[in-house]
Amino acid sequence: MSRDYESLYKAVPIFRSLSPSEMDEIVAISRLFRAPAGTVVLMEGQQGKGMYVVVQGRASARMRLFQGDDAHLGTLEKGDVFGELSLIDNQPVSATVTAVTDSILYFVDRAQLSELRKALRPAAFKLLRALAPTICERLRQLNARIEDMFSQPEIHLRLMEDRYRHLAQDGALEAPPTTIPPRSDVLELPVRPGDDPNFVKS
Is residue 153's pLDDT more than 60? Predict the structure, then answer.
């Protein structure tokens, strides 16, 4: 590995636990490439082929929502990774990532990393272990968003209704009712035969 590449990779946290020889193995199954501003690096719904690391520049992650709307999930900067779950499973990616500035990205190929794992090469397992904190943190963030949504349902319902009306005004949807019917505070359960005083046993 050249000194330029070595300093480049050591600047990325997930590679710091790798020895020089282990880094050589990862480099052999990976590639470094430039992504000009505006480049769609990863498209939501497409099959993931590996993990990307931001070496230089910035990228934006967005997820498609209701009727073509989308949500900004976050900005990815130097040292951040995306598409990391593609190293573990073979599922479509869940977000679109676009280069915000001219960027340099590092791509780790899933299929070739899998071969290293089958060969029981330490580099593959150390890399996956280094990714664990990132995956856990993103899961915590997702849990926090879900908790917020369920703790304040009226706010999120109102936001959804406002968005629905906006789309309807654009002609994309039929307008919803002017008001949302209030929910009953009483939960009505079906009456079982044994609970019905008018029920007569045969």
Answer: yes
